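Batch manifest, entry 17 of 40.
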Amino acid sequence: MIPTFILQIWLLGLLSLGIVGGAVYFGHEWQQRSWTWDPMLRQSVFAPDFSWNVPSGFLAVAIFLAVTALFGRALLRTILRVTRRKATLGDDPRTAPEPVSEQRLRRPDGSELRVQVYGPQAGTPIVLSHGWGLHGDEWNYLKREFAERFRLIVWDEPGLGGSTRPTNRDFSLEKLARDLEAVLDLAGEKRAIMLGHSIGGMITLTFCRLFPETLRKRVLGLVLTHTTPTNPVRTTSGAAFFTAIEKPVLVPLMYLTIALSPLIWLMNWLSYLNGSAHLSTKRSGFSGTETWEQIDFATQFQAKASPAVMARGMLGMMHYDATKHLNEIAVPTLVIAGNEDTLTKPEASEQIHAGIPHARLITLAPARHLGLLEHHKEYSKIVREFICAEEGDRQDTAA
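Output type: structure tokens
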């Protein structure tokens, strides 16, 4: 979720409130118009006339809007399950193995990070950094497919999932990169792969800038997925327009979201229930070969995440820029793009690829911002091959 998404949150939320408000209004109008004067009783009585008339029309609209507000998601699920490919057991993103261990890292800013570890102690460590507004469950596919072979270190970024917020309200990329360094310590003496999606890639690149010596000594390679080397407002579709409205519109909306966080949270849940959030997720995250389970899984993250946390993280992204330091990254790097990604366009991945010496670029197709979920088998295969190649190089060097 990038800063421009704040507009979508507000538009969907206001639409959802409008649906509920419309149901209340038309229901009230039907109720008011159903009162008639009874001359025998010499008083008004409630006597609705269920026929082809205006009051019944108001009732029909009220019922339609109420059903849409509460059960639109269920109707959309029925439609998409008919028109989309059927999910197999391996396609369900909700299931994952139990972690080998779980711990909480207390940070100097008062936040606590939930970190879960999967896989054998002897396996190559992979530190997984999720996208903004999501949490560690984003990696459920990799947990299932990698846990027997690799040691997965999965952390929830501050304020998301099982992690708490910093007391100083610092959600800058530099703060998140320092958190990532603390998580990397759990890899011990083994050199680790650092894998990030969206803001997870931005955090990783910021880590590379802040801790070049740690990068050289303790990191085996980088995997940067659907991400960008600079403020994502500059590398999204319609960047010129969004850049123009960044300060006068987007930034004030962020602070308004923080101030009205409980209301926005309610709006997000209404958007989830009526299905409009699912349509938004489908449009921005998937390219057409996804399953309903993947759409619903990805949409739930937004409904559960604190709007204040999401807004503060988006504000942090607006001050991010790693472009001048890409050529200083001297570890093997795999860049994975989505050919139809509108949030972090393929050109952003190409810029990372061009800037990091000897980086490799692979483009998933057809794929948008959640291509790693939609094409999880292909994604896992690409990442596995990269890690195995780096493991082989390390062993050859040691020999």
